[in-house]
Amino acid sequence: MRITVSVNGEQHTRDVEPRLLLVHFLRDVLGLTGTHWGCDTSNCGVCAVWLDGTPVKSCTVLAVMADGQEVRTVEGLAHGSELDPVQQGFIACHGLQCGFCTPGMMMTARWLLDHNADPSEEDIREAISGQMCRCTGYENIVRSIRWAAEHGGGARTADAATEEAPGREEVRA
Questions:
Q1: Per-residue pLDDT for 161 more than 80?
Q2: Strand pairing report for 70-72 and 2-7
Q3: Percent of the chain, pLDDT > 70?
Q4: 98: exposed, middle or buried (C-beta count within 10 Å: 0-12, 13-18, 19+)?
Q5: Per the database record, which ranges form the 2Fe-2S ferredoxin-type domain (predicted)?
Q6: Higher-confidence residue: 40 or 21?
Q7: pLDDT tens, residue by residue, 135-152
Q8: Domain spans of the chain?
């Protein structure tokens, strides 16, 4: 099937197998290896990306389902050469160890901060509860997200600044 997907603002048209997962489309077809592939069962959350502004686990989305839609990956977080405050926070607060869960955590953190510029520790823990980290025990991840919130990390997208946060049932990551 021929699909056209906008990834981090750039249009990509490719012929793909109907059964190709979005995570494999991003990594293997487009060469965007920042999105990690972990479990294929939606348990670990390392493959989180945004599909039309909503976090999804890309191991459970077919690439053909993204046809005509916008995908945002961890490669799209930085603004030119300026790191996103979420990325800066993970550096400043040691929010990563092996780095395997980091892209999914960052995408979820960015979404949270776009919809809640000053989240509590409980809000942060709830937001990242669908993602597994085997190294840090989450303390430094939570600190990293708080650091980002305290250093201008809230509401980085124009749409998020004017929209209400979707209900919990709409969040798929």
A1: no
A2: parallel
A3: 88
A4: exposed
A5: 1-77
A6: 21
A7: 877 999 999 999 999 998
A8: 2-76, 85-152
Which class is domain 2-76? Answer: alpha beta
For domain 85-152, the CATH superfamily is [2Fe-2S]-binding domain (1.10.150.120)
Residue in this structure with the two tokens 């926070």, named with its chain if needed: 89
Distances in Å between the alpha carbon of 61 and those of 6, 40, 68?
15, 10, 14
Mean pLDDT taken over the chain: 88
**pLDDT given at position 172:** 40
